[in-house]
Amino acid sequence: MLIRTDITGIGDPFIFKADKFYAYATSAPDGFRYFSSEDLLNWREEGYCYRNSPWAENCFWAPEVYFHEGRYYLLYTGRWKKNHSLRIGLAAADSPRGEFKDLREGPLFDLGFACIDATLLFDDDGKIYLYFVRDCSENIVNGVHISEIYCARLSRDLLSFETEPVKILSPDAAWETEADPEWHWNEGPALLKHGGKYYLNYSVNCYDSPRYSVGCAVSASPMGPYEKYGHNPVLQRREGDFSGPGHNSFFRVGDALYTAFHIHADPAKPSGNRRMCIAEAGFDEQGVFHIRA
Predict the structure, then answer these.
(1) pLDDT in tens, 207-216
(2) In this predicted model, what pLDDT tens digit does every residue of 59-114 receive, in sequence order?
(3) Average pLDDT over the chain, rounded to whole?
(4) Which of 44, 147, 239, 282 is deepest in the core (most CB within 10 A)?
């Protein structure tokens, strides 16, 4: 099953189920617009759920919304006015519609380097994990710009680390590095727990490339080590009008698992103009993860 929604001009979609379905995405230069649907097929734009950041000047990317201890939390990327470097922000509201307000006057944390694409895992034992990307804009290794995924355990209030962030994933497979010798990406983390194992989806290549794709890695622990699938990617372009699928996120409807992701709105002209898609996801009899797109 593949649903190509009419939500375009966006990227990095995230769907949250409350009284109805809400979709959040990279969608505006000054904050985040959101969309709602009763059936996942028909979507309505509702306006802004977040605006007027006290610390970020632009690059409002990759929003995700969670319900935790009676409030709704918005996790997002923005560019810090202080030094024009990318960071992670955290805002809260009493409704999934917002308006979300930052919990700090600055970013959630500062490790001294650019960070993007944060996501949360609420584990069965009550522990909370934050996954984020050390962005390639400032991470240069042996002359190569590299985006790498990190993980840390968070406090219950989501405001501080309980462990030091550790690197858990870096672009090292041939399909992840061959497209561009100077820029390599593992970004857009999305986490699942299944059968006692942790499945990490991640995106590869530049978002405006037709080769933007999704891989999968698995671990027995939320903080790794993660082993990448030998048959990656699990989501990739197809000839025709399915270009650059990536930056996916997961949600459930009952027992059914779905993933939201974007593709290029115009496959003939790949760019930041992207369309939200929805597909079923799951595991086969051998426990191998797949996306039915």
Answers:
(1) 999 999 999 9
(2) 999 999 999 999 999 999 999 999 999 999 999 999 999 999 999 999 999 999 99
(3) 97
(4) 147
Residue 1 pLDDT > 90, yes or no? no
**Read out DSSP for 237-280?**
-BTTTB---EEEEEEEETTEEEEEEEEESSTTS-SS-EEEEEEE
**β-strands 144-154, 183-185: how paired?**
parallel
Percent of the chain with pLDDT over 70: 100
**Please, is 85 exposed, middle or buried when counting C-beta atoms within 10 Å of its C-beta (0-12, 13-18, 19+)?**
middle
Say if residues 105 and 55 touch (Cβ distance below 8 Å): yes
Query: Residue 255: CB partners within 8 Å, gap ≥ 6?
Result: none
Per-domain residue ranges for the chain?
Answer: 2-292
| Assigned token pair, 100 | 């979300």
3-class state of residue 175 by DSSP: helix
Burial (CB count <10 Å: 0-12, 13-18, 19+), residue 70: exposed
Helix (H, G, I), strand (E, B) or coil at 163: coil
In whole angstroms, what is the distance from residue 122 CA to residue 8 CA? 30
Rounded-to-5 percentages of helix, strand, coil across the chain = 0, 55, 40
Kindly state the tokens that stand for 4: 């190509």
pLDDT band at 270 (very low <50, low <70, confident <90, very high): very high
Q: Which CATH architecture has domain 2-292?
A: 5 Propeller (2.115)
The predicted-structure confidence for 190-208, as pLDDT tens digits, reads as follows 999 999 999 999 999 999 9
